[in-house]
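Blackboard transcription, Thursday session:
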Amino acid sequence: MQATVNDKSTVAGLRQRADAARNRARILDAAQDAFIEHGADVPLDEIARRAGVGNATVYRHFPDRRALVRGVVLAVMERAIGVATQALAEEADPFEALSRLVRDSVNWKIGALCPMLSEWADLDEPEIFATRERLDAVVQSMIDGAKAAGSLRTDVGSDDIMMAVAQLVRPFPGAGYDSLQPFVHRHLQLLLDGLRAPARTPLPGGPPTLEDVRRECILAASRRETRQ
Amino acid sequence: MQATVNDKSTVAGLRQRADAARNRARILDAAQDAFIEHGADVPLDEIARRAGVGNATVYRHFPDRRALVRGVVLAVMERAIGVATQALAEEADPFEALSRLVRDSVNWKIGALCPMLSEWADLDEPEIFATRERLDAVVQSMIDGAKAAGSLRTDVGSDDIMMAVAQLVRPFPGAGYDSLQPFVHRHLQLLLDGLRAPARTPLPGGPPTLEDVRRECILAASRRETRQ
Amino acid sequence: MQATVNDKSTVAGLRQRADAARNRARILDAAQDAFIEHGADVPLDEIARRAGVGNATVYRHFPDRRALVRGVVLAVMERAIGVATQALAEEADPFEALSRLVRDSVNWKIGALCPMLSEWADLDEPEIFATRERLDAVVQSMIDGAKAAGSLRTDVGSDDIMMAVAQLVRPFPGAGYDSLQPFVHRHLQLLLDGLRAPARTPLPGGPPTLEDVRRECILAASRRETRQ
Amino acid sequence: MQATVNDKSTVAGLRQRADAARNRARILDAAQDAFIEHGADVPLDEIARRAGVGNATVYRHFPDRRALVRGVVLAVMERAIGVATQALAEEADPFEALSRLVRDSVNWKIGALCPMLSEWADLDEPEIFATRERLDAVVQSMIDGAKAAGSLRTDVGSDDIMMAVAQLVRPFPGAGYDSLQPFVHRHLQLLLDGLRAPARTPLPGGPPTLEDVRRECILAASRRETRQ
DNA sequence: TATGAATGAGGGTTCATTCAT
DNA sequence: TATGAATGAACCCTCATTCAT
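(Written on the board underneath:)
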């Protein structure tokens, strides 16, 4: 599964040296934790230090911060797909499967998706896009099942839910992941209760998608450029 | 009301110059938006640029980042108190008052409270503390009324709600406030639906407070220092 | 005596306002102490603070740091001339008069001449030059008398002595004037003992003058420019 | 001998790269001259420029100004120890050995010890302390010998002499080392003549030590803090 | 005139990135 | 390939100087 996450490795099936592969994995792990704890702006030297390699080694594996963010984001989404797939397979009630995914989001470290929402990720990059489609697909099947079973309100979309979860499990800036612990499971539960059918009040507007957000971001960015 | 938010201004009744007052307000506004969009670590030069003043002018009004954070946090809380007080006075149903406060949070920019949870804020500073008590008091009276009226679930606390709202209306990093528009009102409505009595499922743990979060943040920071 | 020390004041005999004159004196006093304690690079705002005036008032009286340095240097030299003249008049033995001037140099704050030796003073400026000539004259008469009396070695010049004194009473950088107290009077006494006739060993070279130093400084500066 | 002066180099026998060692030496040399010419507050960028390296390279070798001051002070003291030891070994007359050390002080650049008296040096740091003890020991043995031989006045201490020498060979601020040439050897000779036995006049007070100066400096600094 | 306010330039320091071993 | 070293740009903050009241 990790094998699909490659930057320079396994180009044309070229097997990379064992120690190089090990370094790559250690860098990704270190980066994931560092992103969660310090945000996407953490010094790369800090990541190198955590991984126990020289800073230039980080650059060999990931030419810049974007590439590193990309690697981490792909790894996290793969993990999420795994969790969701398993939940869907093991839970009879689709709403329960969704709940499990949401509640578990702290454990599979959806928080490491933070940089995905920062300026450092390119959501349109093909592999990111494809992986996100696969994640969406499994979440969507949960949602469809739960709506059909009458346990999930029908006016929400898959991105509605994923975005709300991502917001709620996002650590406060400069605070680190632990700062969420006292609240996050309560917040997620409030959200799940709000998602239950029947809907207590209608939601304003229609279900938007991540693309809508991206459009806004791009607009905002261009406005910012103009201002300068 | 804003008059209580002063750092160097109106000390001992000394009227400050009109242009200085104007600059101070512009800096606060710029800082508020910049904190929301980029977090508490945004370069002060960026804030100066947005405010249309030289960087040293920022330092004249606010001797360091802490002072600037303090000014923004105080201003936001004052605004929130105003909104909440008015809602409480005008709405017959206390849950409706709470809903109005929550829905309006995008307008009074609760997101600017983010830096309050960073290392740059001192929640124990007297004026901050007093203002927070006043805000808590009015929110708490909403909550108490709504619980008494049987419209709000009884297992939530005031900080539960404020924190969840703050998370949901926080813009994506580097994205700007507008990026939330497609989602934010839906998310807030989902939250409000989840807050309705009767509670559909129990919340895990007991209602925590901002202090619990602060404690975690400080612990994390000290752990970070230790590691180095 | 102070009346000769003027920058913009008493232009064409125009009497300045009493409060302006008072401010000017306070600024000079504050600058003198600040220069002694912190060196010629002390912030002008600090001087304004000590003088109890606004910073712009300093600029009104002294358009830039050079002018302020000039004012202080002139005042100190005037004081030195006074001390020397009096010593010459009161002491029968000219070497004793010289000793008194040297020993007293700490009191009349020759240390405030520090900035004269920094990049901030222009020794060729007419009034500075003239005042220095007057000081040299009185010192020279002491020296001539002492040499004639056979108590001062004959191979020293007036600038030899003044420079050595200035060096010995110069506070250590960043240290302030008090740091000298434990040593300075011993050092000055060692110097005076070394000046006694008969000379125990000949001095290398001939007696140089301040101008020789200036020539070296200018050469060094031009070399520095070239290097860049 | 220089080998004992290391900060990061040769830790646990780890050989550092040749170019890094070269840079380190060039930075130390440049810093030494810059300290002599401009004092301990000279911009580090200026030092980097003189050394022909980027400013960040200075920071790599010396994490802050204190470390750089420490490196320079250690190097100078080592050099002084070398000169003094050799003089003591080669000169039969101990006063002559002392004279040679004093006259040579311009060459071994005792002036670079200035920052030792600023806020940037920590005289209690173990290696500094130990090196100073070694320097004191050799100077003291000169002095003891010369006193015993009846050629040095008995009321002076080792720090008396070293401090006076340091003062006399200190270049004028902004002037560069060369500006001293016309005077410095004459001043040093005057001092040596004043040091000869028998003493022509008694010295005021008792022989103080560097520690006395440090105490004054620290007191002055604290007073300065208090005033603010 | 005296003053508080504004500002641009510069110094200290960190960090992403490139280079040389 | 992996690494320590080097560097320039950016940020925070201070200060000399100018401006507006």
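Lecturer's comment: The first helix of chain D runs from residue 18 to 38.
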